[in-house]
Amino acid sequence: MSEHSLSSAIDDYISGRQAAKPDKWPTKADWLDDAAKRAKQITLVTHAPKFTHGDAKGVGAWVAGKEREERGEGGTNEKRATYLSTSSLTAPAIDVIGNAAALDVANLLLLEADGKRLVDRIQHGDTAPLSPFTKEPEQLDAWCDGLSQALTGGEVISHSLAKQSYFPLDQGYHLLSPLFASALCHALHQRIDQARFSDEAKATREARRKNDFSAQADVYFPNLAQQHFGGTKPQNVSLLNSKRYGRAYLLSCQPPSWQAGLTVPQSEEHFWRHYGYRVRATTRKLVDFLRSVGEVANNHEIKQARAKLVGRLRGELHRYAKELRTLPAGWSHHLASPLDQSFCYWLDRGCPTAPAQWGDGIGMAFGRWLNKQLQPQLTHVGDIDLRVWARELAQELRLLQLDWEA
Which Pfam family is one of those matched by this entry (predicted)? Predict the structure, then answer.
């Protein structure tokens, strides 16, 4: 069935080529004779040289996809790739370099049916897909021999414009010429485009904006960059580069930013000092905003902007408390200056008993701390504001306690 399907695809493809030049190729066998002669003008590769420099004349390389077998749990054999490389791909995309006028031969070799490409069949010595087009075994062998030349690439040479490293030996050197993994780049490009621009990805992002449920994950690539090859003529680099319009994605390889270890607060004063350092930028924005509006009548926009900034301060306070609750239970029992019982219940998992109205006490402490930050520069901030800050945090802490006790 596979041979028949692939032969049908070949028949349709050659018919299209014949329709363009009916006088040049009267029969499909004539077209295959010509294609077999021109196949040496191109090379099918997975690694291409011109990504390094557009004028590099070196040859490319072909790496077949394969998977390594490793012993899995329970004594079963599991197929898995040891390293991420072109050989990790089960069916690497094939790139084409060489004379652009012979790309029709490349497109023939890349025809696929039932998961099998013509080039793969020829590489394994299978002539069945081409056999319907001739009754002469010699002609069939000539086609396969000629088309196979697109796999060899001729003499193995490098070029002065390619990347080169001379590896010293006892007598002389080995010349190492790293090549761009075009097939792996293409697989990466397809997966990222699928995650960014497919209809499923767009529907997922739309559901996220509307706070609706989506069974599919919303995939995001932080700090994604693009590198362009070939300028206005990406086809001069390779066929796959032309299909990507000269673009290749670059994933961020930046090292993680250093984060200092979590410090145990030795007192309530120490706790607020650490928290103030974490939110200093937001506090400064709040001061600047309240100074800019002065004592004008509070309209809706001013209230919304102020509430947003104070909400960010409360959010960071909750995050800081959540981090402290990851410390070993009971850490607050060993401090030289004991914390108030409300703070112990809030910050330490080793304090399971909730004091009465514990959230109100922490809310008032937050209100006093915030007023202390604002009042040196904003004289109109007073007790009324303090009670607002305290009430809003106390409400959130009551909801938090319900979650803990659920």
Answer: Cas_Csy1
Q: Range with the lowest mean pLDDT among 109-118, 341-350, 386-395?
A: 109-118
The β-bridge partners of 78 are: 70
* CA 192/CA 231 separation, integer angstroms: 22
The domain ranges of the chain are 1-153+175-258, 268-405
Q: Quote the pLDDT of residue 80.
A: 57
**Integer Cα distance of 391 and 367 in angstroms:** 9
Nearest residue to 204 via CA among 212, 45, 306, 123? 212
Determine which helix (DSSP H) or strand (DSSP E) holds 216, and give its type and residue range.
none
Strands annotated E in 14-163: 42-45, 47-48, 68-71, 77-80, 95-98, 112-113, 116-117
> Could you tell me which of 381, 387, 345, 339 has the C-alpha nearest to residue 366?
387
Q: pLDDT, tens digit, for every residue of 123-144? A: 888 888 888 888 888 888 898 8
- pTM of whole model > 0.70? no
Q: Where are the alpha helices (DSSP H) in 95-157?
A: 103-109, 118-123, 137-152
The answer to whether 178 and 159 have CB atoms below 8 angstroms apart is no
For residue range 73-93, list pLDDT tens digits in order: 444 444 555 678 888 888 788
Band of the pLDDT at 296, cuts 50, 70, 90?
low
